[in-house]
Each structure stands twice: as C-alpha cells, then as structure tokens.
Amino acid sequence: MRAIDTVEKLVRDDPNRAAPYVGSMLRDLTTSDQPSVQWHLAQLLAIVDLTDEQTDRAVAWLVERIATTEVDWIVAAHAMATLVELQGRGAVGADLVRPLLEVQTGHRSASVRRQAAALAARRAGGVE
User: By the 8 A CB rule, do 84 and 97 touch?
Assistant: First the structure.
C-alpha cells in the first residue's frame, strides 16, 4: 500500500513519470484484490495519459469495480470519479457510466451514494 501511495503522489505532481509504467500497472495491479491498491490505481488512471488500448483496459477494470455495490467504499468512490473523468475526455460514453452510477446509489456507504448521485447530476447537467 505504501508503495502505490508514493507512486500516486509522485505521478500526481508529474503525470509523465508514469508513462513507461502504465502497461505494467494495468497488467499487474489490476489483479490485486487489496482495496488500497485498487483505489490508488483508480486515482492514477485518472491522471496518466492512456493509449486507446490502455483506456479500454482501464475502463473494463473500473467497470468491474463498480458493476455491483459489493465493493469497498473508497474503491467505489475513486472508480466512479475516474470513469466520469474519462467520460469528460470523451474516452467513455454516458451510456456506460450512467447505469454504473445508478448502481452505486444503492451502496451501503452514504458517502458513495451521495457521490454517485452528485456525479450523475453533474454529468446530466453537462458539467465537466
């Protein structure tokens, strides 16, 4: 957890630092079942440049995280935020994101429910 936390902080300051490692992150870190790794990876995917293939892999992984409410609250929060970010960039359509946000309005965590509703309202209003 500490390692990915450090990577996320370094990359947040300079997203280009991650460029050589994005493929490895998508290959190796997406198999982790640790919420701390998952939420940091979701954060990273929102700030790094992704190729079309990497975007497809990232979106598939993010969708898997929030397809049900049986997900750690912080993973859900960051996965939703990243999908909405990718939608804002035109990398994923509202037709994919909207139903996932709706699913998360039923999450056991009140903060996830609020965030899902807020993100859905923001997207519906066309706010980036």
Answer: yes
